[in-house]
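hey so i finally got around to running the thing on that chain from the lab meeting. sorry it took forever, my laptop kept dying and i had to restart like 3 times. anyway pasting the input first so we r on the same page abt which one it is
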Amino acid sequence: MQDQLQSAIAPYLNSVDFLEVRLEQSESTGISFQGAQLNSVDRNFGLSGGIRACHKGGWSFVTFNDLANLKERIETAISQAKLIGNEQTQIAEFAPIQAVVKVEIENDPRGISLNQKRDILERYNKMLLEFDPRIQTTMTGYRDRFGTSYYVNSRGTSISQERLDVSGRFGVIARSENTVRQGFDSVNSRTSFNIMDSLDDLVVDTAQRAVRQLEASPVKGGQYPVILDPYLAGVFIHEAFGHLSEADFVYENPRMQELLTLGKEIAIPELNVVDDATIPNLPGSMVYDDEGVPAQRKYLIKDGILTQRMHNLETAGKLHEAPTGNARALTAQYPPLVRMTNTAIEAGSSSFAEMLSGIEEGVYAVRMLGGQTNGEMFTFAAAEGYMIRNGQIAEPVSDISLSGNVFQTLKDIDAIASDSVYRNGGCGKGGQSGLPVSVGGPHIRIQNVVLGGR
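ok and heres what got predicted. didnt touch it at all, straight out
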């Protein structure tokens, strides 16, 4: 396949400034339950491709799903790029790579029958439904996908990569009178179907969280010291800071260029934030990104100093910085954008007990229910919460909405725990939602957080 794609672009290497072809073959299974009802069973085999051409700074993207049309589609992409381009092409230089990346599979989901997959998911779904009479419905799902992507470009790169994703998701909605609460959890593996085994404790905990919050009273709005659990800390750094560090956003926003000047002190010296695509078996991990650049571990913040941002080849060229391996596309039918991989706050030195002991009255916020960001401003709703009184976890509270300015909040972090963990998730940007990523962090304590309640 690599030879065929290279032969296809060979006649056009001097026609444009940059040309690439990505082709992906995949097979996937999806199963979902809505309440007691088996909602869907899907089995798909796909072939899709995308072509990008750049001429005088103008980019064109064309898709295809039949190799017989490849020549025609390449010529279409080139002609469109020439219609658009009227500036200078700025793409970072990078040494060409030839590589083949295979997945080491422990227990291949393609060898597990559809009936067995359904039965496993149905058992977990039944556990959720029967946990408590106040549980109104469930949303459970299973998905596996194995794909092989082929990538070639006009600079001599030729890469074939395999990728396996296996995931399970478990959600409940609980109701008591006029109060409705949710619980959600998920699992993911890049190597094995075994991730779906022995999930009883996780499933029960998902139901317990929703039911427990039915008894919670709304938090009183005000300003508090707040401890974020590792999951919410990871989501905060991904959503509120990580997206600001994607170089396409910085390049297009003069205010962000001023606020995010490399070398600037933007946080406490104890804060370190990484984006690391090299960690094995996480959703955002890879060997090469979708432009053929090797995956990297990079410090976005090091000792409180803004040290690096995330790039694709174009943004690296425009900002005169090195590529970082952050060009990612949801599938070959989408153009690669600057995207995060596995983004986390590094562990600190405090214990959770030490963090609690410094709080007379505060809030412990757990997991994220939803949220939004607008430039440097953010608002997040915690899924679960507890008051902290005199250094102890106290009564559960609900309707916790955290808001603030991300740059001020980074400076208001005053304690970072040593218990960092990564959790899997999906990220949306530019119409490409559900891109596999993970978020990580330890417990963190933040002073002067504005909380909204009822």
